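Sequence, structure tokens quoted for completeness.
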Amino acid sequence: MNTPHTPALTPSADVMAMIERLIAFPTVSRDSNLGLIEWTRDYLAGFGVKSRLTYDASGKKANLFATLGEGPRAGLILSGHTDVVPVEGQAWDSDPFKATIKDGLLYGRGSADMKSYIATALALTPQFLTAKMDAPLHFALSYDEEVGCIGVQGLIKDLQELGLRPAACIVGEPTSMQPIIAHKGTHRFRCCVRGREAHSSYTTMGVNSIEYAARVIVYIRQMADRFAQLETRDYGFTVPYTTMQTGLIHGGLAANIVPKDCRFEFEARTMPGIDVERLYQEIQDFAATLLPEMRKVEPNAAIDFEWLASAPGLNMQESDAVVQLAKALARNKSHGSVSYGTEAGLFQRAGIPTVVCGPGSIEQAHRPNEFVALEQLAQCEAFMLRLMDPGMQLQAGK
């Protein structure tokens, strides 16, 4: 067994076995995650640990929250999402839902994003329970992070209703074990344009929904260009300004039919301090200027918007106790900022100081042949073993 102060180049057999077990659950966001959640509930129950499960409206997905130990001080949350992105259309060299080890790397969907972090915490459950810790340790596993940080919002609501106020949280997204103290907000929207169908030889009798959608899309791109040109830079981020982009569009029936309906989805990745409500309103205001022209031909023409999902940015300070704790646990004096979003901003907004730190690289996430280096797993295991050090516990409770 590795000690807190002597990390090995490879993780323990218990950690490896747990990672292999979790990767084998095909918890793609569109599908249920109950296989993994219920297995985890039963695994923890074997150690006398009770789990609280909260389900989505369909009953096919659930969050899990469990508390290990007790103590006079508020505890620390180790948090991760259980869902993964799809593998269809990707050229994998091995079964994505079977952990494969080659040349010091562990391949599999979710190996980096982010089942390895969850697995390491679960594998160390026996040690956590026997350690002399004066504060509880919490596990928080969520669903549907990949489609908008949906599940964790219910989990946080549960904690608030229970009156539970943990001291801090560490979200284990892949950061190469560097503590991350800031990230952008992520906001996703849908726009539906309704026009009028017509024969393509009589375009003046129709309202082309695709063309009007395109005008809105171009305006979104112009807003993105404005941010790129004028927004104050923060070079702590890889992309040091707010970005916007359209990622999905559907419309029309055939090339010789003026299309009645078109819908598209777009997103904004906002820097800390950006008023996303104002950004969203600006797009709606522009769309409203197109309606009089459309309604000259079709009185029922419309451009409707829907805010699909939102996760606020993270903005911690280097002096914050949880940041100093994460640096000590990781044996890493540096910290960083990232352009991608996580659940950390939601925890911070709920009043729980949070950092992001986990094994693997975000560059491997969502790609075919996703992998995590075994050395990263060993570092993560050592990170968590150090939680049992009384000196670290004092930092966690500040």
Observations:
- Residues 209-230 form the longest helix (22 residues).
